Automatic annotation (TrEMBL), chains A, B:
GO terms for molecular function: DNA binding. Residues 3-63 form the HTH tetR-type domain. SUPFAM superfamilies: Homeodomain-like (SSF46689), Tetracyclin repressor-like, C-terminal domain (SSF48498). Residues 26-45 bind DNA. Keywords: DNA-binding, Repressor. Pfam families: TetR_C_24 (PF17932), TetR_N (PF00440). PANTHER family: ACREF/ENVCD OPERON REPRESSOR-RELATED (PTHR43479), ACREF_ENVCD OPERON REPRESSOR-RELATED (PTHR43479:SF11). This is TetR family transcriptional regulator. PROSITE patterns: HTH_TETR_1 (PS01081), HTH_TETR_2 (PS50977).
Amino acid sequence: MAIDRKQLIIEAATKSFSLFGFKATTMDQVAKIANVGKGTIYTFFKNKEELFDEIISSLISEMKRAADEAMDSTLSFHEKVHRGLYQILEFRLKHQLTIKLFQEEKEMGTPAVMEVMIKLEDAILGYLKEKIVAAIDKGEIQECNPEVTAFIMLKLYVALIFDWEKRNEPLEKEEIAKLFEQYIFKGLSNR
Amino acid sequence: MAIDRKQLIIEAATKSFSLFGFKATTMDQVAKIANVGKGTIYTFFKNKEELFDEIISSLISEMKRAADEAMDSTLSFHEKVHRGLYQILEFRLKHQLTIKLFQEEKEMGTPAVMEVMIKLEDAILGYLKEKIVAAIDKGEIQECNPEVTAFIMLKLYVALIFDWEKRNEPLEKEEIAKLFEQYIFKGLSNR
DNA sequence: AAATGACCGAATTACTCATTTAGTCAATTG
DNA sequence: CAATTGACTAAATGAGTAATTCGGTCATTT
């Protein structure tokens, strides 16, 4: 079969979004990098935003997979959540595309980027919520509101990883796990 | 004695900062509202920022006073922190000036405003830290790092009061107290 | 001595117009 | 003839610039 043009376009766009962000990426540029006529892009994607969305959807899958891989079923719930969340947030910290988008969100407030960041947060919250519900069912943790609990866990992690080091020495991964246990978990655990 | 020009200037500036924010407030405007020549302002304050700083310093005192008033010594540490923090954040939510500055911080990133918001956060953290150290000394709570604990408490409260309601029904004061107890306190308390 | 407001240079804003861009579609290709 | 293309268009952008505004000063007034 001939080269997969759709894949070429996705790869080109990913590269360009990672390098220049959403706004500064032009469709002409994507077409050029992909070695494809601009019109071809529009046979696969309705518009620039849809192309962007498709890329973000894969990113979300990739994140979930990374989080799942960081856990294993022998771990306690508390260790699972710590490793999963840490993995996701580290992913955010290391991945070119997420770094660029994070920056574009706060520096320029590009609407399409804002939207996508909400989607990303929702995906993380949904993922967390799933784990929490499962843990409640198994009696690993107390009854609690899964939405609020997921929200609090995420906020705490973001605060410890991103916000704390704005004004202090960064915390080690182990310290974060310990703090998480001390503040959240000892209050949640059945034992 | 004649009218207190310094006080007039402070009142005029507070009014204008509250109404238009820091950047959009002109010294001519402050002078006009205060019924004072512009030059007079500069006999009391080195520049616009110093005038702003003095106003913020009183604001911080006012906040601390409000927090202190919301507590009484018969309360448990957990109730004290809840009431104090809630008071401070509600203050932020209701006070014209803080609302305007909060908005100016994220929408325009005015440097002078950013600086002052850091100062405000530091004041809250310092205040909290004091209460935490006292509680540790009295054996009311476990040993813990007071800086990190203050930081986590503030972040949790801000998340529950400001961030949660961006995408959900606002939480009642009682719910917030309960969540705070459930997630933070049960893990901290000696009993 | 205290207060003032006209004045100044720097910074910001309003505006304009040439350029760029997202998306279309008639022509082209294999 | 289905897939691909890039010239084309209307809309958005932003560089350049003229005009205004602003923070701060200081000679004058009270």
